[in-house]
Amino acid sequence: MVSLNPIRILKNEAEEEKAEVARMSSFIGAIAIGDLVKSTLGPKGMDKILVSYGRNAGQVEVTNDGATILKSVGVDNPAAKILVDMSKVQDEEVGDGTTSVTVLAAELLREAEKLVEQKLHPQTIIVGWRIAVDAARQALADTSFDHDNNMNDAAFRVDLENIARTTLSSKILSNHKEHFTKLAVDAVLRLKGSGNLKAIQIIKISGGLLEESFLDEGFLLNKKVGVHQPKRIENANILIANTPMDTDKIKVFGSTIKVDSMAKIAELEVAEKEKMKDKVNKILSHKCNVFINRQLIYNYPEQLFADAGVMAIEHADFDGIERLALVTGGEIVSTFDSPEKVKLGHCKVIEQVLIGDECLIRFSGVELGSACTIVIRGATQQVIDEAERSLHDALCVLAATVKEPKVVFGGGASEMLMAEAVSRAAARTAGKEAAAVEAFAVALRRLPAAVADNAGYDSAELIARLRAHHAQADSTMGLDMENGRVGDMKKLGITESYVVKRQVLLSAAEAAEVILRVDNILKAAPRRRGPDRRPC
Amino acid sequence: MSMFPGTVAFDEFGRPFIILRDQENQKRLTGIDALKSHIQAARQIASILRTSLGPRGLDKMMVSSDGEVTVTNDGATILKLMDVEHQIGKLMVQLAQSQDDEIGDGTTGVVVLAGALLEQASNLIDKGIHPIRIADGFEMAAAAALTHLDGISEAFPVNKNTRENLIKVAMTTLGSKVVVKCHRLMAEIAVDAILSVADLEKRDVNFELIKVEGKVGGRMEDSMLVRGVVIDKTMSHPQMPKVLKDVKLAILTCAFEPPKPKTKHKLHVGSAEEYRDLRKYEHEKFLEMVKRVKDAGANLAICQWGFDDEANHLLLAEQLPAVRWVGGPEMELIAIATGGRIVPRFEELTPDKLGSCGLVRELTFGTSKDEMLVIEQCSNSRAVTVLVRGGNRMIVEEAKRSVHDALCIVRSLVQDSRVVYGGGAAEVSCSLAVARAADKLSSLDQYSYRAFADALESVPLALAENSGLSPIDTLSEVKARQAAENNSNLGVDCMGHGSNDMKAMNVIESLHSKKQQIALATQLVKMILKIDDVRSPADGIQ
């Protein structure tokens, strides 16, 4: 009779969700994540407070950045995890559009849920979506316009400023967007098309106002000069090093020091000091007048440097060192036996400057003029952190645009345009895939609707108007969120990077497809962990 | 517990004595009960995989015990990640595993077939046929099916000129996976990878030479085949050159660090003199190490271990680019590709042990600056790397598995170039053949034969079901046409192309893979049918 009992093939706590249940659970998870970040979309989107737990319990973060929010919420639903992962990748790849990509994927799944209820096979929906993605991508590529290469710098700058302004307008910086737009564009233009964001350093100093943030043409290092050393050096020759300047330890394995009298200890100490002094002398023989070390410098060598009139800076972190090497054109040195082979870095003036109450070292007149530093000031740590994130987004987008100088119109114009193209494709499609294609268009239209909703306007009215405009091939019409009406994006100068938009479309469709293809969720029994007794 | 035979016996005075003690602490299943329970467990597993079969099969989402998510369509992976506890379940997992190891594809099919065979066996047991007779009958039926497969197989020549055909085969395999978006590209990558590695004379493909590397980010269209080795590392010093030409590589498994004797030792420094000596020795050691590499003529050092900062800078000063912390398998791959020798000591480094290649360059991805080194134009051009890109980690992982499947199927064609047609065509044809053979048998085995024939139909049935077709209708139509036209190429039209001729649609599977599926499934079923007693601790089965 035992055979009639249900047989459990999985482990005790392992779970299995089948067909409809599985699908429902992934739809619900994905839609919940989409709704979570939806309210941050657009220029009038709201921010979220994130309170961390664990080691930095109680720390508060205020942000509008989709990727940052999703990174911190800690989801359990597997489908939601896929969306979080996707937004992280979007952040890494193009830097912006993290919220849009999540919302679009969630909206696609919301539409898919309805279709599945109508007994459409998920594979059929996927086929429809692929048709839709192709149509949307084509429409986006057709509408994107290139900066002409022979276009003058001023016009190019205006374009970049437009893009930066669109990106920044959805962030906390929107009140100061003119100021920050200028900062970001200046910084990116200084890179001269290399797109190497490493050369842009962002320093955050609390205090002051957001408007007081500024761009420094040189390089700022948040470190102090050793005592009794020159505070200002002109025509500096900089030696950038990564070497221990405490007591140089013997690296031969297993060596210990064993002495039998006090006198010998003294001798050893002298030998040690001698070793250090040798090292300092070797360093000095490079004819440098500034010495910057990644590791710390002990008092004794510091004093030696002071005697020689050399500025010595200790504890410059690794990023700082690499950036300095990049900016001043020197190389990172660890041995000092062959001065002729070492390339020193150069800059015109090194001096200490006071920003707020922080003392920084400024390297101005650096060889590679491409680097710069942006100093962000702000009332609270949260404001500064958010400002940094927003600025990072803007910089990423600008760098991407400089590399592939194609732009599309923002304010929902390109979404509506894609939706229109997808709808047309739906009308042409024979077979039941057409329903899925149409659903894709509906999901695309939800994005501008969310932007309007967040600003407190009547989204149904606005979207309907917008649709009418687009149906008459007015493809530059979008949402003017300042005035709450439909406006011409070309006149308003609201543009976005084509690369970002394309990535949003592709990633969202890809992730939604992965989730839709699932018909069974198998969860392993959670690993048992001992109670966490670490002090926090 | 006295219901089990053999636990209690009686002596001549009628007093009972117990032969097997502590039966209350054990759970025991015997006879038909045991069989039925096993069959049910196996069928449960098969039913989970059933919906993943075929080009329109759906995926499974697996959550590991640490909460990590995997989305996959690959039978072996699903079973591997499933937290199976039931003993028969574990057998099924191993079944898929061995198909995966042997062929690499058709793992779902083999489990579905085994499930169907067991279902049929259960019916036969109800009819009162002894399990051993059933097992024997299945064995003979399988043999008949295999012979029939040989008969309907067709030759499929593999050489450099048949690339196009191979691509079509690879596309069939990839048809059921998430990568269909860039179907053709992935298939081309797989075929090119195999063709450049394959030894067509010996009909052998060394999988060690193909590495499938995934990198999150970018689009799937950016995936590519690198004719060389890709390592997920960068130059050890940021200022070393990013592109090297005509490279001589020193492949080292020793660290750029002061030597560490293996025997335990203690070094005492007793005086200032000794301290100075030691310091000098240390310095010289570094210089010597770099010099040896340089003297051998190398202009790139690949090292399995780390370097000291000092050594790192010396390398830079001597203009000797180096890569550190390269993993063991990559080291081997580099050695094979560049024709170099792995050198365990600096003393043994000689010019003839160096590898050589034409180009080493750094690839950069995305805004967060991920870098990888590519070693190309190697002296032994047979080592290749497939670099898979994709939107997120799950897609990359799944794409990697799919590429692996495609590689496997192409490899099996290189090894044995006979093919049968997919889409259930081969199964239907075998089923017909076995059913015909059943009629000629006079013994009890004809029941097993018929059951076997029915079980074979489960694959086309599942295919039709997953594709949204009416399963029985489709199957009976295909069967009727196969019997009437005597054409073994007719299968289930999963993609809605409007034709059942699998040859025209290029739905091809290798004969070897198909035979293996049938043989493995039959073997497992035989084994399960022979179990009649299971003992386990009482709380083992619930």
TrEMBL record, chain A:
Q: What is its main location?
A: cytoplasm
The protein's matches in Pfam families, at most eight in alphabetical order, are given as: Cpn60_TCP1
What are the subcellular locations of this protein?
A: Cytoplasm
- PROSITE patterns per the record? TCP1_1, TCP1_2, TCP1_3
**Molecular function terms in GO for this entry?**
ATP binding; ATP hydrolysis activity; ATP-dependent protein folding chaperone; unfolded protein binding
Q: Which GO terms describe its cellular component?
A: chaperonin-containing T-complex
Q: Which InterPro entries match?
A: Chap_CCT_beta (IPR012716), Chaperone_TCP-1 (IPR017998), Chaperonin_TCP-1_CS (IPR002194), Cpn60/GroEL/TCP-1 (IPR002423), GroEL-like_apical_dom_sf (IPR027409), GROEL-like_equatorial_sf (IPR027413), TCP-1-like_intermed_sf (IPR027410), TCP-1_chaperonin (IPR053374)
Keywords (A to Z) from UniProt? ATP-binding, Chaperone, Cytoplasm, Nucleotide-binding
Entry similarity comment: Belongs to the TCP-1 chaperonin family.
Assembly and interactions? Heterooligomeric complex of about 850 to 900 kDa that forms two stacked rings, 12 to 16 nm in diameter.
The record describes the protein's role as:
Molecular chaperone; assists the folding of proteins upon ATP hydrolysis. Known to play a role, in vitro, in the folding of actin and tubulin.
Q: Spell out the protein name for this chain.
A: T-complex protein 1 subunit beta
| Organism listed in the record | Vanessa tameamea
UniProtKB/TrEMBL annotation, chain B:
Q: A single GO CC term, please?
A: chaperonin-containing T-complex
Tell me the keywords, alphabetical order. ATP-binding, Chaperone, Cytoplasm, Nucleotide-binding
Family annotation (SUPFAM superfamilies): GroEL apical domain-like, GroEL equatorial domain-like, GroEL-intermediate domain like
Name a GO molecular-function annotation.
unfolded protein binding
Q: Which InterPro entries match?
A: Chap_CCT_epsi (IPR012718), Chaperone_TCP-1 (IPR017998), Chaperonin_TCP-1_CS (IPR002194), Cpn60/GroEL/TCP-1 (IPR002423), GroEL-like_apical_dom_sf (IPR027409), GROEL-like_equatorial_sf (IPR027413), TCP-1-like_intermed_sf (IPR027410), TCP-1_chaperonin (IPR053374)
Location of this chain's protein in the cell: Cytoplasm
Family of this protein: Belongs to the TCP-1 chaperonin family.
Q: Which PANTHER family does this UniProt record tie to the protein?
A: CHAPERONIN
Name of the protein: T-complex protein 1 subunit epsilon
Q: Which organism is it from?
A: Vanessa tameamea
Q: What is the lineage of its organism?
A: Eukaryota, Metazoa, Ecdysozoa, Arthropoda, Hexapoda
List the gene name: LOC113391924
